[in-house]
Amino acid sequence: MSLWLDKYRPTSLGKLDYHKEQATQLKNLVQCGDFPHLLVYGPSGAGKKTRIMCLLKELYGPGVEKLRIEHQTIVAPSKKKIEINIIASNYHLEVNPSDAGNQDRVVIQELIKTVAQSQQIQSSTQREFKVVLLTEVDRLTKDAQHALRRTMEKYMTTCRLILCSTSTSKVIGPIQSRCLAVRVPLPSTEEVCSVLTSVCKKEGLLLPPELAKQISEKSGRNLRRALLMCEACRVQQYPFSADQDVPEPDWEVYLRETANAIVSQQSPQRLLEVRARLYELLTHCIPPDIIIKGLVEELLNNCDGQLKTEVAHLAAYYEHRLQLGSKAIYHLEAFIAKFMAMYKKFMEDGLDAMMF
Amino acid sequence: MKKFSLGDKVNNWVDPSFSDTSAKSEDKQIWGFQSEERRSRKWKEDQNGSLWMMKSNERGPDEPWVDKYSPCSQGELAVHKKKTEEVEKWMRTHTKATKGGILILTGPSGSGKTATVQVLSTKLGVRVQEWTNPASAEPYLSSLSEWRSQGLSCSSQLAQFQEFLLRVNKYKCLKMKGERGAAEKKLILVEDFPNQFYRQPCSFHDTLRVFVRNSQCPLVFIVSGSRSGEGSLWSLFPKEIQEELHMSCISFNPVPATTMMKVLKNIVYMEAEKQSHKSLYVPEKAELEMLCSGSSGDIRSAINSLQFCCLLEKGLCTLRKPPAMSLKRAAALSKQKGKRAKSAKEQEEHQAIGGKDVSFFLFRALGKILHCKRGNGDCPNESKGASGLVLPFHLLQHHREVLLVQPELVVERSETSGEFFTLCLHQNYLDFFSDIEDVDRASEYLSDADLLTGNWMIRHIIGDYGSSVATRGLIHSNSCQLPVGFRPLHKPSWCLVNKKHQDNCVAAQSLFKSFCLTPVGLQTQLLPFLAKLSNPTRSQAQMAVIQDVGQMSLRTCSGRLKLENLRDKEMGQEIEEEEELHSRVEKGLQVTQSHLLTNQALLEEEEVVIEEYDSD
User: Fold this and answer.
1) Per residue in B286-316, pLDDT tens?
2) By Cβ atoms counted within 10 A, which residue in A251, A272, A354, B576 is the most buried?
3) Is B592 in CB contact (< 8 Å) with chain A?
4) pLDDT over 80 at B437, yes or no
C-alpha cells in the first residue's frame, strides 16, 4: 500500500491539477522534440519533481516510469571512493550530487561524462539525448557548480540537464543564464483544497470542506504536507469530522513548546533545559537551520512589534554564523540567549513604565 | 665486557654526572623472569651493612641519589601513612593465606609505588619476584641456525609471561649461598606489561583467570598512572575483570610538597655532611621549594634535579638560564611590577634548571576557568598603577579585578585540543552564571570562538585564538561571580548528539531512498508523518528508523540524553572527539571551498583543471 502521495501523483502534463498554463507551456516546449537545459525552482512541496516527471513522460513515453535504483561507486582522482544512489530509467537518470558532500564536483563530472558519452542505440526512433536530473542544486559547492557549467556546454549534443532547486539564490549566475528557468510556485489554498477533495473522492472518502480548508492552511500550502496530513487524519479518525484536530509532525509541536519555554522564563537554568531540547531535536535529524527558522516563527508570534525586527535580525545573523561555523549548538544557543536577554529587558522596561 | 673497560677509560676525561646505567642493565640476568630486580638486590645488600658501604664507596658520588637515598624503612617513605598501612594490610593478609590475590597500585610516576612494595616486602620478609619484559635483554645469537632453534622457542612474550606466572607460583626459589633463609613467602611484582597485552587485553584477562584459579602467592601490578597510563589501566583492568577476580586497587597520590621538602632537605643534609671535603653547592631553601613545586609531586624527578642542581656551581646555575627567554618574560611582565610578577619570573627561571611540565586533569583545568580566581580588590592603588589607566565612567561595568590564572596556559596544560576544551566549557558554563545578560555575552563569545575554528585550513594557526576567545570571554562576561561551591562537571554531549544526528540521517536516507525525496524533505516531512500512519508494509529496519526519528516524546524533557559526569581524573581524549573532528574537517572543507571559489582568480585555475580532467 503506497502513500496517497505516490498513488495519486499526476503522471502527465495534461493531468496536472494547478498551474495549468505553465503545464501547456511545458508541453509546447517539448513538442518539437528538443528543449534547452532547465532550471526548475520553487518551494518545497509545490510539485517541481512531479512536473519534471510529467515532462519526461511527454518526451519519452511511459518508459520513463520504469525506475530502478542503482548504487554506483565513483572513484575520485584522489583514489577516494564515493558511493552514490542513482535513480534511473532507460532514458534519464536522477542524482542528488550533494549526497557526496564536498566531493560533489567529481560526481557531476564523472557521471555526466559517462552518460553523455554513451550514444542512444536507436537514435532514429528515440531522442538523441538523455536527460540528467540533478536535485538540490542549491546545495552544491561552488566548485561543483563551475564544473557543471563547463560540462553543460561540452555535452549539449547528447545530454540535457534538468536542475531542481528550492531557490536560485545559491545557484551561480553562469548556470542560471545557461538554463531556462521555470518557477513552480506553491498552489493556492483553494487549489490544495480541491486536490485534497479529489484524492479523497478517489479513495472513496468524504472530506468535509471545512477540514480540507483547515488542512490546507496548516500545511502552509505545501501539497506534500497537506496530503500526508490528510492521510494521517484518515488514520486518526473516520468518518472525518469538520473540526477534527489535524495532526502535525512531532518535532514541530516540540519546537513550539521549546519556544514557549523560552518566552515564559529567561534564566540560565531555563537555557539549560532549552539546550537539552535542542539536542533532542538534532538527534531527530532536524537540521539546525530549520530549527532556527521554526523558532523565529514561534518567537515572533510572541513578541511585541518593536522587538520583531531585532529578533529577525538576530536570527538572520546567527543563521549565517551557523553556516560558517562548525558546531551548530553554539550559534543556536547564542541566538536563544540573546533573545532571552532582550526579551527580559523589554519586559522589565515595560513593567517599570507601568509602575510610574 | 670490553665495552666496560672502554667506558672506564672514557670516564677519565668525561666526568659522568650519573652512574653508568648500561653497566647496570648489562649485568642483569638475561632471562625475562629474573628472580630479583636491581633495587631488590640492593635491598638485600642493605641488610648486611658492610656490603652496602663497599658498594657505595665503589659507586662513589656518581650514583644517582634516587638509588642512594631510596627509603629503607616505612618511616622514610614519602607516602601517606594511611596508604602504606593499607598496602601493608593487604600484603599481610594475602601472604599468610594459601590463596593469593591480586593488587593493583596506581598513581602518577614518582609517587612511591614501587618503593612502598619494596620496603614493605623487606619488612615482612617477603621475597619479590619481578617480571621484566625480556625483549631488550634477549641474548644475542650469532648464527642464523641458532637463531632459528632458539629464537622460535623464546619468541612469544606472552608464553613467557604465562610460564613465569606459573613457575613462580609453583616452585620455590633455589637457596643460594649466603642468602638468608626463611624467605618462604613470595610476592610477584609486575610493573612491565608485555606489549601484546595492550593490543589484546582479553588474552591478559585469560592469563589472569588461570592464575587466580590456582594461585598460591599474591600478585601486585603497578600501573604508572601517568596520563596515558590511566587509559591503559582501564583497558588492561576493566571494572568487570576487577570485580570478577576480586582485585583490590589502591591508588597513590602525588607526593605532597611538604613531604617532598622534608626528603630533599634530608638528602641535602646528608650529602653535605658526607662530602664536606668536596665543593658541593648547597641549594638554598627557596630553591628547594621551587624544586618541589616544579616536580609536581614526582619525587624521583625532584631528587634527580636536586642532584643536578647541587652539581652545578653557583655561577653556573645563573648562567644556565636561557637569557632570551627570561628577557622576553621580563618584558611581558614588566607592566605589572607586583610581587606576583616577581614570583612568576622566578618560577620560569627555575624551570630551565629541571622541572616537569605541569599538567592538569581536565576536571581541574575546567574548574580553573569556571571558578576563576581573581585578585581581591585589596590593593586598588597597585592594580591601577600597574595598568596605568582607569576605565572611563561609561565603561566601568567592564572593570574586573586582575586574573590570577592565565587561561591560555590552563588550556595548554589540560592536554586537550582547544576545541574540545571549549566544548567542555560550553557544556558546563551555564551552571556558573546567574544573570541571563551575562549568559548572552558568554554565548556570543563561544559563537565567535567556533567561527574562528570553523575553517580547517587555518585552524592550526588560529585555533589557539579560538580557545583564548572562549575562555577569556567566558571569564570576563561573568560579571557577578558567586561562590557556587562544588558543581559536578559533565562531558560535552555535542559529540554524541552530532554523531547520532549523522547516523540517523544516513540511515533514514538509505532506507527510504525509494521515495526519491531530498534529505531535508524526508526528515522533516515524510518521516514524522509516516510515524503517524500505521503502515504494516514497512520492513523492520524502516520501522525502527521511523520510531527513532519521526516520533518525539513530548512529555519528558530530556529522557534520552543522559549527562555523563566528568570523573575526577579523566582525560579528554575521547573517541568521539576524533570522529567528530573528522566529520568537521569534511564540512569545513565544503565551506571553505565554496568561500574560496568565489574569488575570480581561482576560477580561472579551476577551469584549467577541469579541462585537463575531461581530456583523458
Assistant:
1) 777 777 777 777 888 888 888 877 776 544 4
2) A251
3) no
4) yes
Owning domain of residue B314? 284-354
B186, part of any domain: yes
Cβ neighbours of residue B145 closer than 8 Å, sequence gap 6 or more: none
CATH of the domain at B77: 3.40.50.300
**Across the interface, do A318 and B597 touch by the CB < 8 Å criterion?**
no
The domain tally of chain B equals 3
Under DSSP, the state recorded for A125 is: T
A326 touches B: beta carbon within 8 Å? yes
pLDDT tens track for A103-142: 888 888 888 888 877 766 665 566 778 889 999 898 888 8
- How are beta strands A180-183 and B127-131 bridged, if at all? unpaired
Separation CA A109–CA A134 (nearest Å): 12
Contact (CB<8Å) A284/B518: no
Q: Is B375 on the interface with A (CB under 8 A)?
A: no
Contact A141 B597 (CB under 8 A): yes
Query: Same domain, yes or no, for B111 and B34?
Result: yes
Q: Assess if residue B387 is contained within a domain.
A: no
Residues 6 or more apart in contact with residue A36 via CB below 8 angstroms: A160, A179, A180
CATH second-level architecture of A250-348? Up-down Bundle (1.20)
- Whether B303 contacts B351, CB under 8 Å: no
Q: Are B436 and A330 in contact (CB under 8 A)?
A: no
Whether residue B605 lies within 8 A of chain A, CB to CB, comes out as no
Give the distance from residue A113's alpha carbon to the nearest chain B alpha carbon, in angstroms. Answer: 8
Contact B433 A136 (CB under 8 A): no
Residues B217 and B310 in one domain: no
Please indicate whether, in this complex, the C-beta atoms of A249 and B524 are within 8 angstroms of each other: yes
CATH of domain A4-183: 3.40.50.300
